[in-house]
Amino acid sequence: MACEASGRGKGLVNQEVLAGAAAGKEEAIALLGTKGRLYPKRILSVVVPDSQVKDVVDVLISVNKTGNSGDGKIFVMPVSDSVRVRTGEDGEAAIV
């Protein structure tokens, strides 16, 4: 599943300028411009069997890594169970 999101990494805005804008300093506010503080991002959710996690993570890194700030993050979390609604299958059978 992929969804649109908004966010900002640490490297996209000078923290001193951001602090100045928060304090109401006009020069800092002008430096931020009209774009705002959030930028378009993408969230991708993938559920795979445990045996495929390393391969999927390796592929995601190889496709998305530029070596620059903003390449993204991967969070690996356990899924306690799954159920395929149509058939009632559960566990790993529901995701393969």
- Which segments are poorly predicted (pLDDT under 50) over 5 or more consecutive residues? none
Secondary-structure element order, N to C:
EHHEH
Largest sheet report: 2 strands, antiparallel
- Rounded to the nearest angstrom, the radius of gyration is 20 Å
CATH architectural category of the largest domain: 2-Layer Sandwich
- Biggest sheet strand order reads 1-2
CATH topology group of the largest domain: Alpha-Beta Plaits
Spatial separation of the terminal alpha carbons: 15 Å
Give the DSSP E fraction (strand runs of 2 or more residues).
5-15%
Bulk shape: elongated
CATH C-level category of the largest domain: Alpha Beta
Number of helices: 3
Assembly category: single chain
Helix and strand composition category: alpha+beta
- Fraction of helical residues: 25-40%
pLDDT averaged residue by residue: 87
Structure summary, number of beta strands: 2
Overall tally of domains: 2
